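User: Show me sequence and structure for the first protein, then do the same for the second.

Assistant: Starting with the first protein.
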Amino acid sequence: MRIVTGLALACGLGCLCDQTPTNDSSPSACQIENKDYHRWKGVQISNRWVTLTIVPQLGGRLMQVTFGGHDYLWVNEQLKGKYFSPDESAAQKRWFKTVAYAGVIGRPLSVVGISGNLTLTGSFGVFVAGQLEARFYDKDGARIGTKPVQDVLPTELVALQHTVQAPPGTTRVSLHLIDRHGSDRGPLTATVTPQSTRPMPAEVGDGIPFVDVAQPKPGTWPTYHGHLSGNRFSPLDQINAGNVQHLAPKWMFTIRGAPRDLQVTPVVAGGVMYVTSVNEAFALDARSGREMWHYSRPRTPGLAGDAASGINRGVAVLGDRVFMVTDNAHVIALDRRTGQLLWDVEMADARQNYGATSAPLVVNDLVISGVSGGDEGIRGFLDAYRAATGERVWRFWTVPAPGEPGSETWGGRAIEHGCAATWLTGTYDPESRLLYWPTGNPCPDYNGAERHGDNLYSNSVLALDADTGKLKWHFQFTPHDLHDWDATETPMLIDAEFRGQRRKLLLQGNRNGFFYVLDRLTGKLLLAEPFVKNVTWASGIDPDGRPRLLPGNEPTVEGQRVCPAVAGATNWTSTAFSALTGLFYLFAEESCAIYTKNDQWWEAGKSFYGGSTKRDTAPGKTVKAVDIQTGKIAWEIPDVGGGIVGSGLMVTAGGLLFYADGRGAFVAADATNGKLLWQFNTNERWRAGPMTYTVEGNQYIGVAAGTTILAFSLR
């Protein structure tokens, strides 16, 4: 889908039927059967050839019409019965041409009024190629806006958004679409849904400078990880091991209509909490959970993979703006005070299996975002956009193009759909100005026959110059991965003494079962030790970082048992590190799976696994504390229940480790020894990491449970 700044149009079936001639010899516009679509190939009318092709948008109901050398789209939702033959009457020929020029059809138009502005959103199919003009009128017929829509292609499903000023009390908007011939394809109307902004907290301020993101003020949580380092450690200690038993719910906010359990980590800055579900964002008063504004747009039809399931993990904030991604691989900027859309940029074509699911990261004046689709055959990349304008500053491709450095690690045709997606939020070191981003598996996931070699830069962490996107170094955890072991786990940055020397470190518990310590300035491997017992694919990691592979662990047509299972010994959910204890905390799972391969090849709209898996052992999930000096397990909390994809972890200066278990409980444990100190049962499933903040001197713990945001504080 292509996004154009403007307005989304809506039209029912009448857009077609109303323009059908009344001549009795002509068929109704609602009388062409679906089965006849495929018969309209090479049909000659008036010595002109007509070709009709199903276009897979709006549920497959768009048809491309080539008639007399011009392309049009003919859209209808329920068509019935008549086949045109070369000897049709003149009236029927005229009718066919009229229908070919019919106009637009789309999803319901959404109009939201905020502080005197009207924001209109939606999506529609276009019948006529070329330049269009959208004209907006208020209820009294006065024009309140005009927006050109340039170079619309007839095969596109176009999503438009536009904000116009409207007189106070406007309750209805009409829209006219003017095509290149000057014909009016309207009016289309929609009712305005009033949504006035509510008073913002006094501490919201005029803007959030980058210094407040890089060095968070006490009590704020201004990024997805809370800190650009990704350590999920909070210096707050008002809630501590001595009083945590008095922790109780303070408020809750339910996101109605959320299609799945939330994976968002709330962001708090200036007394405002920002949370998301798919294609929608909310600003909440962090004291009470009161809604201040709400931005939303329709979900995109026809997506593949995680984006289709409705995942969104949160926002980034900078200055007067909030940034998030949409399901169809767009980055958008919203006004932090009102939720008004400020800019909208398409990262990639969602029709090629691209999507987006994770919170962006702000670095200086840039907004950094990756893409999902890592099991659907995309070509992965990472983008940087100017925060003020949405202008793209740089792009780093995680799968080199043929002939580029690194392409020699792809022997075969899979390089065209190599994946290596960038779907988890990275980290940043302001001192070295290096950006660290993890990458996903190569595709097809389980069959390496068409991708001989290491398959760079899949299953890696990338160290990039944040200003230019140039690669400084990379470390590949699992070369030529055949088990879907994404390296999309947080690349955590810490400064610590390591084996007697003060160093800048990068820590990661990897899905392949090994815990890694790297020098983050050079990428040199310092430590790699298994953190689970069930590791059958490698006997260890060599000093150069390459795994020592064990035989008999590649997927086969018949099936091969390998440990860990496809979900990994750990997964994307947040890890944590406390300088007070010197321990790294993560969820771990002892599990194995049967891996099979097949000859599946890439198709738009489908996953590209090249095989399948099934569990061979019941998972055993634990919380583990790892000594970063040795890689040994200091202690663990056994049998926390649920699969490996659950909640994340957070540790505080109050000596507490927070997480949610697989039985519906939110838990606080002693960060020193793992002793359970407090729990609150919700009977919800957990897919999001906890965070903490203060408002007016009171510390809160925030977390998403199911489709509800919960905030806890001391009684």
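Switching to the second protein now.
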Amino acid sequence: MKPKNAVPFRYRAVTLVLLWLIGGGTLLYGLPSSSRSQAPPVGAPGTNLGGETTPELRGAVWYDSLEAAPPLRDGDSLWVDTEWNRTDLSMTADLSDLVAEGDTAVALTTAGDGVYRLAFRIPEDNTRSDSPTIFIPFTVGGPDLADTTFNALQVCLSNTNPRVLNRELRPDRDTFRGNDILRLRVSWSGAVSSVDFDLRELDPTLEDVIPGTQVQGSQYEVEYRLPAGIADDTLRVFTTATDMDCGVTTDTLNLIVDSSELFPPVLVDWEVRSPVDSGGTPLPLTDGDTIRLWTQWDRDSLEIAADPFDLAPEDVTRPNIIPRGPGEFEIVYTLPSENAGDGDGRILRLIAEDPRGQFTIDTSVRFCISNLQPEYISSAFIDTPPVLKRGSDVTIESFWRSENGLPLAVSGDLSGLEPARTGLVAAEADTTYEGSDLRFVLEYKVLSTEERAPDGTDIPIRLFAEEIGGCGVAPNPPTLFVSLDTTPPDSLPPILNPLPEQTTADTILVTGFTTPEAFSAGISRQSQRLDLTSPVDSIDGSFSFRLGLLPNLENVIRVFAADSLGNQTRSSDPAFVTQVSSRAILFDSPFERGDEIRVSDPSGMTNLELAIHDLEGARVIEWSDPGPILEQSWIWDGVDADGDDLRQGYYLVRATWKDSQGKSQEKTEGLVLGN
């Protein structure tokens, strides 16, 4: 069991370097101490603790650790006793690298016998970034010497500790017996630098923790056999993770040891050793291959057998079982040279029985058999332009043959067209049969993106086919080639000639010029591309449109140029035209504070005045415009002339003006003021 007075393991896992820059820079890791209250040892016999002796830092004892400085967090108390060779010193610690704001010069107090104590509480709202190397310089003075600065201590600040994401225990149970083999795998958040497993409650003969084996990323595991004579008890396994700064987290797992419990054997791990590729990845099986399968079980003294019926139904040969170590068995089996057929998920059943009659049939080991690969017949482009551009549709018709009768999935690698698409693009396949061949149609649209291949010819599109329900992959993928042109005719957008700000006309002539290399010009209104094009003059680059206007609102007009493939330049700066066709006061209903009020008259307005009245007829606010103008608009925030908010309710909006004939006009609308 863990001693009651033991320091938590998370502190012993952190190494603090104390820098002694006097006398050659000797490294200190803290002086021996049996308890926190024990004063640190003073200098060796005969050492002068006063007078003219040069100050020397001899050691340090941390309040929260017997060995070294613990990781610090915002809100923690920093308390360390430093031992020096003089008793008449005065010193101040500079905590500016540890604390972001406030008074960072802290005086040390004397504890006698050359011991000077630094006591400081880090603010809860400290904004200093986490770091494993924060130095605390000491400024030391005395009766006979000038102030001298020493880089005395180094501490670590970490406010974000690792967090357990997942824990896997094989066998997946709480109760174990002596000689059982277990594997514990723990996944952590963040960038973990090391993980240690403390199994000393399980095995008191262990002198130290066991470093975890990194599986991948921040996932670590340990594999361990329980001692044969372990006593029945509830014992703990401590897993401690340290991040790249110095954040430390300890996770505890409780295990019950009960030698009377009976469990069926458990397959802890397995690995295909043959056939594999150069990287150790298992390969699909072909008839005549020899399988070498390594297995690990949770105990020894097992009778192991393997049933290959699903791999080779007609075979009567039994696999060979070879013991390889504690709980480890190798299974060797050769497929017949003539077998039943290809397929995926073929099970190699494993049977294990222990001396107490507990047995297991495990079906987790599965293989894929593939003797016949998909065969490529032909491919061709359908309704695809010879030169592609952004937005072009690519359609490929591809024919394949499945020799073993399994369905196929066909895909295309389009990274030659767009490097951002490095993976296979799943086929939208029409799997109609034509004779014995399978027909697939792959459809793709060239995206408008800067992450694309350079324009040019002979850009490859590779095709792949793989079995569904099998593992066969067509060898030597066929390749089709296309040409790509996504370069616009000019990087400069077209220029629009000036347009009137307001008009009563239903249509308007839009003219401008662009680069003469352009083939055509297009136009958009309210950010919607219209089905209108204009040829571009090859001499001066001019173009023109007769554009219909949307009535009683502001029309936003942009134009762009394009080459013969449709590659577009950037759009022009917007031009704004308001088409006025009715006499009206327009606003949203209900009216919200900050909305717009518009007044229009197609015959024109001069001396326009707009006023808001309450129901008693009082004028609360007004605006004016001398004109002449066809339409004017104002924003109203629901306030009066003094800027005070008006209450919600019903108001009158009254506009007065003179028309083009000089006659006075007036129009009134009711307005409901909301929030």
